[in-house]
Specification:
Elements (H helix, E strand, L loop, with lengths): L1 E4 L2 E4 L1 H15 L22 H20 L6 H9 L3 H20 L13
Antiparallel strand pairs: 1-2
Helix pairs in contact: 2-4, 3-4
Amino acid sequence: MACTLRRTHYYVQEDVEAFWAAWKADVGTGRLGAAGRRPGDGRGNHGGGHGRAHRDRAVAVVLTELRQAGGYRRGMAARLTREHGGGERSWQRAVTEARALYEHGQDQDADGQDGTEPVP
């Protein structure tokens, strides 16, 4: 049972508790008011999983493209979308991640190809 007085909703506590008990049993959260999904760190698939595996493959493709082109070229994400399929926004994210890795790798090359000797 419920009623509304001056735009405030009032419910019978037993009815609400019965509703939550049924909802918990259906969703399987075991906690009153829990959303029924796993907690995350707010960073998408950085923790791993199916989506992260796709992103890692896309980043590897983009890194290969960056090395062949000698750096970022405008329209790279759109071209990769046409060639490999998928969503352009996904390729844009992969390009952004790969560019960061590529540019960081240019600053410090492990093989000593940047004019310095590698540190043993």
